[in-house]
């Protein structure tokens, strides 16, 4: 066994993948820990009802920020990876994406703020939600910036900056403010999140363009838009799969049920943080291999990364399946009611992990349209089935529909990877 490990790691690309994945995983563990603590702070400080208001509002702004980015997330990652040594090109790609995404984010912010009373009363039937929606609305702009900047940093293998930029720094600042100022309302927590995102988005943008060289040339706008358009559909559908369930639960059920589902969802997503860590390393590699026409490099890196994922994620999956009440109980005694929701969502995330980085495999190798079809199927499946299942079976129905379509999305992506690239990531035991 040790001999096989040494043989695999003797390959320079595998060694680079393993080392950088370990670094990314370490940072991701810290980030997941911070996010976990942030959710505990929100749940315990605010209680189930106010936490439900906060998580419902957060789900809405996350969805809107995803739409506002116009599909530039993976486009920035793909094209920056191919020109990572050319500072002028790197900056031009990032600024091009922000030039178009920020006006849309601003429009969404104004609309959310202006229509917050109507949304709270007529859509969610929760009048107490108005202030929270208004104060969290500016977070749409901040979230749009940090995600695009994080993609630019990730493409240049600056993982120590990319991961905190995307999902650590603003939660850490907001959580600290909630504790220091003894916040007990969703609206105050929403205000601190918006302020935290204002600080972190400005800082990380400055950090991302600092010390860039003047090499390279301005990218072709048509080429960028050609990639972004299908990616936009992918992002919107992915965001729908991830964030529509809490919103739909908020429409049909009480705020406490939103809190139970949201907490369970965030715990379940700890299963896939290992996938996210590996994606940080392999996505730029896939893009670079594709640019060089190295299909063998893509296959070897993909299969090796799946093995890393399965070995790393299995203990976490088992922990969540065996001790759901304990994990939910960390957020408060009443949150134990969401134990079954957690188990269902974990199964969906487990399929996400064992299929590997199939989404990035397709998008980084120029097959965005295949991934668009996959996400359209899963996204519309969630949007149609979750309201029905929520109406019939409550939050457990929403969890079941969400887990099913997350699994279906990844299995369909496996099919297209096999069709386009010629190998099956589920057969992780095959010779690399």
Quick summary of this structure?
Helix content is 83%, strand content 0%. It has 432 residues and is an all-alpha fold.
What is the element layout, followed by pairings?
Blueprint: H1 2-9, H2 12-68, H3 72-82, H4 87-123, H5 130-136, H6 139-155, H7 159-167, H8 169-180, H9 186-209, H10 221-252, H11 255-268, H12 273-292, H13 295-322, H14 324-329, H15 339-354, H16 358-364, H17 368-421
Helix pairs in contact: 2-4, 2-6, 2-7, 2-8, 2-9, 2-10, 2-11, 2-12, 2-13, 3-4, 3-6, 3-10, 3-12, 4-5, 4-6, 5-9, 6-7, 6-9, 8-9, 10-11, 10-17, 11-15, 12-13, 13-15, 15-17, 16-17
Describe the structure.
- This protein has 432 residues and is mainly α.
- The chain has one domain (2-421).
- The protein has helices at residues 2-9, 12-68, 72-82, 87-123, 130-136, 139-155, 159-167, 169-180, 186-209, 221-252, 255-268, 273-292, 295-322, 324-329, 339-354, 358-364, 368-421.
């Amino acid at each position: 066994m040790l001999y096989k490990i040494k043989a695999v790691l003797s390959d320079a690309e595998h060694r680079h993948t393993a080392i950088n994945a370990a670094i990314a995983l370490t940072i991701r563990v810290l980030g997941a820990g911070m996010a976990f603590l942030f959710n505990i702070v929100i749940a315990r400080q605010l209680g189930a009802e106010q936490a439900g208001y906060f998580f419902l509002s957060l789900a809405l702004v996350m969805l809107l920020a995803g739409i506002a980015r116009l599909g530039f997330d993976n486009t920035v990652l793909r094209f920056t990876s191919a020109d990572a040594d050319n500072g002028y090109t790197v900056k031009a790609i990032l600024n091009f994406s922000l030039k178009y995404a920020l006006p849309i984010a601003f429009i969404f912010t104004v609309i959310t703020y202006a229509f917050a009373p109507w949304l709270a009363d007529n859509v969610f039937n929760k009048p107490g939600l108005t202030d929270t929606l208004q104060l969290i609305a500016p977070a749409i702009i901040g979230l749009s910036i940090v995600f695009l900047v994080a993609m630019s940093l990730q493409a240049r293998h600056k993982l120590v900056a990319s991961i905190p930029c995307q999902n650590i720094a603003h939660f850490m600042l907001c959580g600290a403010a909630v504790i220091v100022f003894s916040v007990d309302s969703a609206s105050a927590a929403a205000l601190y999140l918006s302020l935290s995102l204002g600080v972190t988005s400005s800082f990380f943008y400055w950090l991302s363009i600092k010390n860039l060289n003047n090499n390279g040339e301005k990218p072709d706008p048509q080429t960028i838009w050609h990639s972004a358009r299908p990616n936009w559909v992918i992002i919107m559908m992915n965001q729908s799969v991830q964030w529509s369930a809490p919103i739909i639960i908020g429409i049909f059920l009480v705020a406490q049920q939103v809190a139970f589902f949201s907490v369970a969802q965030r715990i379940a997503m700890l299963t896939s943080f290992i996938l996210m860590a590996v994606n940080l390393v392999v996505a730029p590699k896939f893009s670079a291999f594709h640019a060089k026409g190295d299909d063998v490099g893509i296959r070897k890196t993909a299969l090796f990364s799946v093995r890393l994922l399965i070995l790393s994620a299995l203990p976490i999956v088992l922990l969540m399946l065996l001790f759901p009440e304990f994990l939910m109980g960390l957020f408060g005694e009443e949150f134990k009611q969401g134990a079954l929701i957690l188990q269902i969502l974990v199964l969906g995330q487990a399929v996400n992990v064992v299929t590997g980085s199939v989404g990035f495999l397709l998008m980084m190798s120029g097959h965005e349209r295949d991934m668009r079809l996959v996400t359209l199927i899963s996204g519309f499946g969630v949007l149609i089935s979750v309201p029905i299942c929520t109406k019939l079976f409550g939050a457990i129905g929403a969890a079941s529909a969400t887990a099913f379509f997350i699994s279906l999305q990844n299995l369909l992506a496996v099919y297209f990877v096999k069709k386009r690239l010629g190998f099956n990531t589920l057969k992780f035991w095959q010779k690399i």
